[in-house]
Every structure is written in structure tokens, then in C-alpha cells.
Amino acid sequence: MRVLVVEDEVALAETLRDGLGQAGFTVDVAHDGVDGLWTAAEAPYGAYDAIVLDIMLPGLSGYEICRRMRAREVWTPVLMLTAKDGEYDQADALDLGADDYLSKPFSFVVLIARLRALIRRGAPARPAVLTAGDLTLDPAQRRVGRGATTIPVTPREFAMLEFLMRHRGNPVTKTAILENVWDAHFTGDPNIVEVYIGYLRKKIDHPFGRAAIETVRGAGYRINPDGG
Ligand code: CA
Predict the structure, then answer these.
(1) How far is the CA of 219 from the centre of ligand 1 (A)?
(2) Which helix (H) or strand (E) holds 150?
(3) Residues lining ligand 1 (ion), CB within 5 A?
(4) Which carries the bigger pLDDT value, residue 42 or residue 155?
(5) Mean pLDDT for the chain overall
């Protein structure tokens, strides 16, 4: 699970990086609002499972980051860190599109529990069923289909297709696939990605005479939003 921490207090940011890292999260840190927004909204793969967002930040406030992310239809779950006696009300955080908040100082145990709950819940505004033309993937039902035809896939194939479809229309690199579908510490042969792309094509494309999974030279793979 990959988490972005946007926190300008360097010591706190490092404590968060260490603590979340020990809890099994992969952590990226941004130290100001502009970098935070850019990383959250413009990073090529948008692959964060959650964002821990401080409110008082140089450049752009956490509120503004959240508002702009949502305006760009970036629905990554956001947990806001609010100061107890801050000028903002915690209700403001939720109004502006945060999914949860925690007052500073907070306990790590609580932070990790809240993050896990957020990630389990996922982003509410995400479409329940992912589509690319007549290609569909239903995360709740664990179903992949072409039109009315259900296509059996393995859990790994499902995870890979889900990752590609969550970024449909945009290329994702092999590295991003490895980090998100295997894990950040995967040390095996990265060509495993090509092998699985091949498996998926044999299931979702070839039998239907289609090519939804495109190879983007030098960039990775992309799901054609029209379903190929
Ligand atoms: Ca701050």
C-alpha cells in the first residue's frame, strides 16, 4: 500500500515515514503544498492508496490541495491532520473532500487503524464498476466481463487488470505495475509483468478479436478507454 504524506514539519514527516513504513506502507513525502498537490494529482500513475494531508502548509493549504484534487476528479482517500486549536474546524475538512481527519498530536496506532479503514473503504466517488468500452471489471463482485460474457481470471490477473483500468487511457510502467500488483519490495524478474500482460490478453482480448491492452513504447501499458 502506497501512501503520500504531505507535511512541512520535517521531523514529523520523517516520523510518519518511519512509522508507516514499519506498518507495511510504502511512503512518499512532500514538504509543501505545491509539491503535495502536484504529487497527488499529477503523478503519472496516481497510484496512492491514501494521502495523509497536513492543513497548514507553505504554498497551498491542505484544504486547497483537497479541493483542487477533487475538482480534478482525483478521489484518492484523504486523511487530514488538523491542529487541535487551529483556526479551521474539522467539519471544514470533510466539507472540502477529506475522508477522515485526526487531531495533532495523534497516536500512531490510531493513525494506522484509520488509514487502513480508509483504504478498505476506498474512495466513495470511484465508479463501482470500472469500464473500458464493453470491458468491465467489478471490484466488489470480483468479476471481469466483455459485454455479457464473464471472463475467469486469477487473483493476480484481476489485480493487474484493475490497476490498468483504474488508470485507463494513461500508460502505466512495468515498475508501477510491479509495485502495486506485486509489492514495493518485489525482487524477482520484472519480466513477470510481460508474462501476465500476455495471460490477460489471451483472456480479455484475443478471444474477442480486440486489443484493449496497448503496449506504449518506452512507457509501459495502457488500457484503451474504448476497450480496444
Ligand atoms: Ca504544517
Answers:
(1) 36
(2) strand 149-150
(3) 8, 54, 56
(4) 155
(5) 86
Q: Is residue 57 in a domain?
A: yes
One domain for residues 210 and 146: yes
Q: Of 179 and 127, which is predicted with more confidence?
A: 179
Last residue of a domain, one of 101, 121, 141: 121
Tell me if 192 sits within 8 A of 174, measured CB to CB.
no
> Ligand 1 centroid vs 44 CA: distance in angstroms?
26
Ligand 1 centroid distance, CA of 126 (Å) = 29
175 with 83, same domain: the answer is no
What is the tens place of the pLDDT at every residue in 20-39?
A: 999 999 999 999 999 999 88
- CA 43 / ligand 1 centre spacing (Å): 22
Q: Closest Cα partner for 161 from 144, 178, 148?
A: 144
What pLDDT is stored for residue 132 in this prediction? 94
Distance CA 27, CA 117 (A): 17
